[in-house]
Amino acid sequence: MAKQYFVLGIGGTGMRCIESLIHLCAMGMFDDTEIHLLALDTDKNNGNFSRLKEVKEAYVNSKNLDKANRTALTDTFFSADIKYYEFSPNYEKKSTFNDVFNYGNTKYNSPEEADLADLVLTDNVENFNLRHGYRAQTHLGSMMMYHSIIEAARSRMDSELKQFLQVLIAACNGGSDPKVFILGSVFGGTGASSIPIIPQAISEAASIMSNGAANILGRAYFASTLLTAYFSFKAPSADELKEQKVIATSDKFALNSQVAMMFYDDDTTVKNTYQRFYMMGTDGQGWDPMVREKDKITKTITGGGDQKNDSHYIELLAASAALDFYHCDTVHLKENKSAGETDYVYRAVDGSGKFEFKDFVGNKDNYDKDFAKKFGMLIAFSFLCNDPDIDFVESVRCNKQKEITGFDGIDVNQVEYLKKYFRLLNVRNVNGELAEGWIRQIHRSTNGGDNFLFNPKLFAFHTMKELRKYDWNKNLYRNEGVGKDWTFSVGIFGSKFDTFKKKFIEQLHNGAPTTITNTGERFYKLVYDTLCKIYNIN
Hints:
Structural class: alpha/beta
Oligomer: single chain
CATH superfamily of the largest domain: Tubulin/FtsZ, GTPase domain
Number of helices: 24
Largest sheet: 7 strands, parallel
CATH architecture of the largest domain: 3-Layer(aba) Sandwich
């Protein structure tokens, strides 16, 4: 039976961290695992939220179009079975603090409570529109998010939050002591507000749903990222401040981060709730997440569909922290839980600015080599799909590769989702020019060159013509470190595809995997095994 893992992504940063986590799943870093992903944000129309859903849809449908028959696999692409859920507080009709709590009546019926609120909330905070998030007002956001989760649990209406909690309740009551990981930042609004209260909130919600039978806090282990400020954005004008009442400004992010870290170091309630924190950040806020849209930006983006931040390596590091917690020794976590102690962990990156595979996953038990293999093979697979001269998967599906049979049962829509996934991962063709996917944005965030894991030539071509010519057989990995020897030759008159195809047919004749029922997934497994063979990866 597949292992279960529970992950929550909170706020805009949390959405992008989940996006990186899904790419780790596509590599095969969560073998034999059923991952329950809850995306939680106040701004349901946020551009980052939309992109996450696009990546998620491409992943799950690449794996299997039939939701009921998706299963966790091992040693292949798309091995994790992702169960996805969303929750957003409903601020459509009641969009301010005053509206949500019917503050006018509160002042009349409970003046003491109103006076208390007025001590900590200014008029602007009480009246700004909540649809774009909590805008770095963590004192407001913690209360609002807790209230929203509890109200959703009490509601007679079904929701994906309740579905997520039902699975978590079942895991706890079944004696599995599940792990729950939270992805988000400590410098913004929604994530910073929610990380401290999420364990208590979902535990109370589960208790309400189960009539007191569930004890999430008592049974589950919790960990979270403490992700500090790593980007900045356009400052608001005086007119924008007047109109919006409250706007999060990036000049306060560093201070917010410092205050948050002091809080997490000192607060006993948080320490009794969480067993592990992953501290991470960058040495500055020089990253502009919307630099490609710079010429189009005329105002401060507070949220909504226009907020489409480019991905950053720190988000992949956060997703890798979720992977680390997944493998964390349960005995140690149990000891921490019993003693009310919390581990604060971090990983320092070499001062040269050059990233190695071990910087993301460590090198215990050659884990960095496993990460390098799976990441590289996923990229190689993308070339077999993104190059229109090859289009290997589709050509096999429609019987154009006469020597390769048995895969005409792959659904054409599954192939289309696979190609869409690889366009989101690597590059996509826009009128002959190549637009950046996730991995290219990650590379750019490290200042480019050979700073990020793979050969810099991988990120240097910009047209379809150049993509077709790219020697991914010998220029996938850097010329030093892990992967430097993972290449394959094609001969004087051969080609990358011909070499791959020959080895694929050989693997096919050795027998396609019989335990995988979905034809597309059986095909992916053969591609994975073939790529590992031709790159001489043991």
